[in-house]
Amino acid sequence: MNLHDWGALIAICTVGAISPGPSLLVIISISTKFGRKAGVLSAVGHGTAVFIYAIATALGISLLSGAANYTFFFVKLAGASLLFWIGLSMFMSAHKTTRETEKSKVPEKLGFAFRDGFLIGILNPKIAAFFASLFSQFVAPTQAFTVSFLMASIAGLIDITAYCLAALISNTLLVKHIFLNYAHIRDYIFGSLLILLALSVIYDSFYL
């Protein structure tokens, strides 16, 4: 790969990372409900999932060859199920969410934040489609492992940076004040969006 290709790869990964989607909704929700540290951990988990997709694609062993691939089909269904579960949980808890309960819910151990960030990344059909289509265009069949590892590292680091910024911004005083005071509205909206996204993925999987 020449400098132009590396520049294009960085640009593509950046656009993919900052584009709106279910991952952003989940990470913002984690950050505003459980704090900045939880948000950053979820971003790192998400970036780890992106690295795994990237290294698998770059090494030529990716199972994301297209929508006709059975593995990709089940990844999409698993991702849709996760989105539906998260959305339904947010929607059902929205009516009893208050500012006081938001604060009292923050656990001491935040390992769940990394786990949830990783799961929403590894099971996100949008990310799977991105690596199967756009990212794979930069992969040469005979490229060295060091090149593949560097490509994957760039994709993962860009993703972590973008979602860490989202987590930090969502914890600024103004944004956090709005999210906490209108937490039930946030959960209704985010929950509904995630449920709709999940149903859309399921519909597309069976009817396209």
Provide a quick synopsis of the model:
The chain is mostly helical and 208 residues long.
Secondary structure topology:
Layout: H1 3-18, H2 22-34, H3 36-58, H4 70-93, H5 99-104, H6 111-122, H7 125-133, H8 145-169, H9 173-181, H10 183-207
Helix pairs in contact: 1-8, 2-3, 2-6, 2-8, 2-10, 3-6, 3-7, 3-8, 4-10, 9-10
Overall description:
- By secondary structure, this protein is mainly alpha-helical.
- It has one domain (24-207).
- It has 10 helices and no strands.
- It has helices at residues 3-18, 22-34, 36-58, 70-93, 99-104, 111-122, 125-133, 145-169, 173-181, 183-207.
- The radius of gyration is 18 Å and the shape is globular.
- Mean pLDDT is 77; it is low at 61-68 and 98-104.
Summary keywords:
208 residues; mainly alpha; globular; 10 helices
Distance between the termini: 35 Å
Radius of gyration: 18 Å
Binned, the helix content reads over 70%
SSE class: mainly alpha
* Whole-number count of domains: 1
Name the poorly predicted regions: 61-68, 98-104
Biggest β-sheet description: none
Question: What quaternary form is this?
Answer: single chain
Q: Shape, please?
A: globular
- Beta-sheet strand percentage? under 5%
